[in-house]
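Dear colleague,

Thank you for sharing your sequence with our group. We've completed the structure prediction you requested, and as agreed, I am returning the results in plain text so they can be pasted directly into your records. Please verify that the sequence below matches your submission; if there's any discrepancy, let me know and we will rerun it promptly.
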Amino acid sequence: MDLEVMKEYMPLYREAFFLTMKIGWIGILGAVIIGFAAAVVRLLKIPVLHRILGAYIELFRNTPLLVQLFFLYFGLPKLGLSISAPFCGALGLMLLGGAYMAETFRSGFEAIPVLQTETARALGMSKFQTTVHVLLPEALSVSMPGFTANMIFLLKETSVFSAISLMDLMFTAKDLIGLYFRTVECLTLLVVFYLFLLLPVSILGSIVERRVRYAEFGA
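Please find the predicted structure tokens below.
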């Protein structure tokens, strides 16, 4: 392993790292918004929309992100809708992550005993107050392990962005290996930068999970 070669490649990986992180977190933010809205709609069982969202969740949870990106990046231009590679990557993560987040949030809401709602209403709380002060905090508490796992999953899925010629970490590693055949150095840098990307999320998620737990769900 040549450390000088790794030092030479470092700026390229650093640039790819920030691009990957930017698109990844934009995608996660969009996924959280879509997932939460979809979970609420499905719990309320709003006619028609409930079934449409159910179909969306099944479609995106049961197809690979790579196929979804190909459809967005190569298929939409056939319909007259051309999008850039960064936007395609973020949109793909939003749609895929939204499907997973929706089920995570829905399971969190459904895990709360009905007695909690009945008690809050008996104490004179309105539906809005019950939702905001009783149901939502507990639902988020229950959902935290799945929520953290989904974030890590989505950040790892950025590795397929290279298929749409996006200069992410994986594309950079493959490109350098193809040009200079420094496989060990390139893959080592790839692992290190993915650890920089994912390890803080895993650690922070574990800390938050321990802090938001309620007595009923664990110490």
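Summary note from our side: Residues 215-219 have pLDDT under 50 and may be disordered.

Kind regards,
the structure core
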